[in-house]
Amino acid sequence: MIAPVDSYKPEPRVDIAPLAVLRIVIGITFWFWASKFLVDDRWAIFFTKPLILFKYNGFEWVRLWPEDGIWWHFQWTRVAAVCLAIGLLTRLSALALAFSMAYTMLVERQIYNNHDYLLATTAFLMALMPAGRRFSVDAWVQSVLFTKQSAVTTMPLWQWWLVRFQLGMPYVFGAIAKLDADWRAGQPSGMFVDSRVDTPIIGPLFAMDQAQFVMTWGGLFFDLLIVPALLFKPTRIVAIVAACAFHLTNATIFQIGVFPWFMLATLFVFFPVGYIPRLFGIRADDQAETSDRRDRISESRPVRWLIGGYVLIQLLLPIRPWVLHGNPAWNERGQRFAWRMMLRHKECLLWYKVETDDDFLFTPAEFVMTPNQVRRAPRDPEMVRQAAVKIEDLVRSTGIEDCRVYALALVSLPRANRRSRRRPHHG
After folding, report:
1. How far apart are CA 125 and CA 286, in angstroms?
2. Out of 37, 199, 248, 377, which could bridge 383 as a Cys pair, Cβ 3.0 to 4.6 Å?
3. At a CB cut-off of 8 Å and minimum separation 6, what does 236 contact?
């Protein structure tokens, strides 16, 4: 006689402790990110002082908070970061942080950074996942108010693989982007090496003839291999040492904010899922089976479709540079949200010509851009166009209706000074 088979096959479940630790890391990172804008009134330098805030197409409706609202924006972001770290109103706090980051990227296009995008996506995942069920105020409140109901402290294993997928994206697609001919030819890595020869202590290393080769191919193979090396036990120790050297070097020579520290703090995501529970002395129990029955909604078909759509978007965004027309290093199409990190260094000179039927005037980009914007905006044709529109609006506001604005934009992708000349430049 054949025994009946239950049509419902529960997914393997794991302890939620690693997700809780990741929640704490994200909260701390967001606190430092928001604090950065509050130091020396950087919130005003980036958002309130500029005459123009650059926008993405379709998001022109995103406006800056009135008066000193952006200052309060970062203050409340710090509050939400603390709440996420301690697990107070966890899902709401995570959603608030994801919104905060998305807002700053949309209200001022030119401040985009890949690590900001990564923080926004990971915070969004925290809002979808039960990250507040361990090491949190929410869990403590539930244990006090609902003592007869045991808290569910496990999650489906696929949720943890979703976290690994998100945090592995910068590495994997960073490696794919470095297959670019310019990177393989030593551009712009050679320039970065040459510009850091005076760095204290490690500067002589960059002066070595092999430095460009190591940075070019070492960076490519590090991004390509670090995730599988962390997942595979025999290579894990070597991968940890390599990751520490890589990210600490980046933090030293590139000054790229919280990104290296966040990536170092999240290496445990690729460790065995039982590593964090063992570290905290949490023993597996028989809760997995009961929590399956309580938490089946997370394994329902609509949720799977939602997660599948999210994963598809995350995979499609980085391949845009490969299908859109032109070289993204020049036209910037597909450059953002694609993990194209350190792939190009542009030198730009931007002036505008304001012309009427009777006269004309040349003006530098500083006429409408702050020094911070001038360092980044001229390399993006769309931001050059938006600045021209702003100049036209300013001229028309003086009563001159018939005017035309032209941009003189000189842009180069220069080679490195020394070692890169030994190999041909492709582009």
Report:
1. 27
2. 377
3. 229, 230, 271
Spatial CA neighbour of 139 closest among 278, 23, 14: 23
Q: Which residues contact 171 (CB under 8 A, 6 or more apart)?
A: 223, 224, 226, 227
Q: Which residue has the tokens 């919280």?
A: 258
Q: What is the CA radius of gyration of the chain?
A: 25
pTM, two decimals, is 0.89
CA distances to 189, 266, 341 from 173, in Å: 18, 18, 10
Q: Are 211 and 249 in contact (CB under 8 A)?
A: no
- The set of residues, in sequence order, having a beta carbon less than 8 Å from that of 372 and lying 6+ positions away, is 45, 46
For residues 393 and 240, what is the distance between their CA atoms, to the nearest angstrom? 54
**Strands of 360-364's sheet, edge to edge?**
360-364, 347-355, 404-412
Q: Which residue matches tokens 């929590």?
A: 291
Tens place of pLDDT per residue across the chain (427 aa) = 444 444 445 568 899 999 999 999 999 999 999 999 999 899 999 999 999 999 999 999 999 999 999 999 999 999 999 999 999 999 999 999 999 999 999 999 999 999 999 999 999 999 989 999 999 999 999 888 876 555 678 888 999 999 999 999 999 999 999 988 888 887 777 777 777 777 777 777 777 878 888 888 888 999 999 999 999 999 999 999 999 999 988 887 777 788 899 999 999 999 999 999 998 888 765 444 444 444 555 566 777 788 889 999 999 999 999 888 888 888 999 999 999 988 888 889 999 999 998 899 999 999 999 999 999 999 999 999 999 999 999 999 998 888 999 999 999 876 544 444 444 333 3
Is the Cβ–Cβ distance between 407 and 352 less than 8 Å?
yes
